């Protein structure tokens, strides 16, 4: 049920460290003067989903009001139907000025003019506090928000389309108590994971199982562990051919990766796996019903917070299992961001909101007080208070550092991401249910369906 609340918010604008010792100036030579009150009296609308990052925003909204004099009308929607409601809101009488989004959704929103490029705001010293420091974000996180808006061109180059609130990379969490009691070691390879999936079947009686995974018939089941495994085998989702995007999900590499994934699910996942979101998977892991969790590092972290779950304190982390030892770790990324509607009539005020809730001060407070991991800011991650907090989770920091350098958006940008990836999730379910004679057959059918979905999409 939607919850609407008004609040005042002024927005802090992005970056620029001025280190010459002189007063910063605009391009026309006039002195730049940033002022949090520059949009006082304005009202903006913000569309948010339920999340710890959102909890941090809501708790700090009164401070933002006082600092900026901006009023914020916000809508809070549950995550399970958030993007459907957000899409509808763009066509409503009162579309949002600012909204919370992932990267994948931007590929649909950009062609519809729902995304304002942010470079002009970030580089304007009148609009962005000099302390914002855009370069403080992890480079691959910021690069994952840059796109030249051309199909067939991956993320990494072009305009900045959003600013990051927090992100996920995909690793393996395991219950070190359960492993120690059975003399087991965490897996290094996919074959190790497959063996553990067999060894830990009903490890503590009926209802217990080896590996917690997402499984619902949705794109949300494809992008975490499966996609990270998929690209580790050298597989791709699409390639350019004759000015069109062509699905290559039936390549030898794709079939091999998917075949292993299906086998792991059959041997080690919950019997109810096909109904699992991240919430059910992490809940089983925290309750000790699952011995491992292959999902977002932060999802496992929440289960390890004292008092949050039965197994809090017993959880440890390792990097994702790979096709073979020494293979390159290519974790996929999910990033929660704040984006600005290109149709907004209050862009400066919107940018102040976005700036305030992604600046160093707020993100450190969010990380320490609202469990706002993972922070996309290097200065926050390296802050001793933050480091001391997450160091209580066994091998979390080490696993994070071993993964972050290789993490990126692994999907090809295209406007039918949700449709094609929902089809993909359905194919995985059908393969687990043995509805195809082979993995190759299932992926051949999926390729045809994906190509049909993108048949009219021309690459510019």
From TrEMBL:
Gene3D superfamilies: Periplasmic binding protein-like II (3.40.190.10). The keyword Transport applies. SUPFAM superfamilies: Periplasmic binding protein-like II. The keyword Disulfide bond does not apply. Residues 1-24 form the signal peptide. It comes from the Bacteria. Keywords: Signal, Transport. Pfam families: SBP_bac_1. InterPro entries: Bact_solute-bd_prot1 (IPR050490), SBP (IPR006059). Belongs to the bacterial solute-binding protein 1 family. This is ABC transporter substrate-binding protein. It comes from Clostridium formicaceticum.
């Amino acid at each position: 049920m939607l919850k609407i609340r008004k609040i005042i918010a002024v927005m802090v604008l992005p970056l620029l460290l001025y280190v010459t010792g002189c007063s910063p100036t605009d391009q026309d030579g006039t002195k730049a003067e940033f002022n949090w009150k520059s949009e006082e009296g304005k009202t903006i609308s913000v569309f948010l989903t339920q999340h710890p990052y959102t909890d941090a925003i809501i708790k700090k909204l009164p401070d933002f009001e006082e600092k900026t004099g901006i009023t914020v009308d916000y809508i809070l929607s549950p995550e399970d139907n958030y993007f459907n409601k957000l899409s509808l809101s763009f066509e409503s009488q009162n579309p949002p000025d600012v909204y919370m989004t992932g990267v994948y959704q931007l590929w649909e929103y950009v062609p519809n003019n729902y995304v304002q490029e942010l470079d002009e705001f970030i580089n304007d010293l009148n609009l962005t506090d000099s302390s914002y420091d855009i370069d403080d974000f992890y480079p691959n996180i910021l690069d994952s928000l840059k796109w030249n808006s051309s199909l067939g061109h991956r993320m990494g180059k072009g305009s900045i389309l959003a600013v990051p609130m927090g992100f996920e990379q995909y690793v393996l969490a395991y219950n070190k108590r359960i492993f120690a009691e059975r003399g087991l070691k965490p897996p290094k390879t996919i074959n190790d994971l497959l063996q553990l999936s067999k060894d830990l079947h009903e490890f503590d009686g009926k209802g217990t199982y080896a590996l917690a995974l997402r499984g619902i018939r949705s794109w949300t089941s494809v992008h975490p562990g499966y996609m990270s495994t998929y690209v580790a085998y050298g597989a791709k989702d699409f390639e350019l051919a004759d000015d069109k995007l062509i699905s290559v999900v039936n390549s030898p590499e794709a079939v091999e990766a998917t075949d292993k994934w299906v086998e792991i699910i059959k041997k080690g996942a919950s019997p109810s796996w096909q109904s699992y979101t991240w919430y059910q998977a992490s809940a089983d892991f925290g309750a000790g019903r699952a011995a491992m969790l292959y999902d977002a590092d932060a999802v496992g972290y929440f289960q390890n917070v004292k008092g949050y779950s039965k197994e809090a304190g017993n959880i440890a982390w390792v990097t994702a299992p790979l096709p073979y030892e020494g293979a390159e770790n290519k974790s996929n990324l999910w990033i929660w961001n704040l984006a600005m509607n290109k149709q907004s009539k209050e862009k400066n005020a919107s940018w102040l909101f976005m700036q305030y809730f992604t600046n160093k001060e707020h993100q450190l407070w969010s990380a320490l007080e609202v469990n706002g991991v993972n922070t996309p800011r290097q200065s926050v991650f390296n802050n001793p208070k933050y480091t001391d907090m997450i160091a209580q989770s066994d091998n979390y920091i080490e696993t994070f550092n071993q993964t972050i350098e290789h993490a990126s958006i692994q999907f090809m940008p295209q406007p039918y991401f949700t449709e094609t990836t929902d089809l993909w999730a359905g194919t995985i379910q059908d393969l687990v249910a043995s509805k195809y004679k082979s993995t190759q057959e299932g992926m051949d059918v999926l390729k045809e369906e994906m190509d049909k979905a993108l048949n009219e999409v021309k690459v510019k």
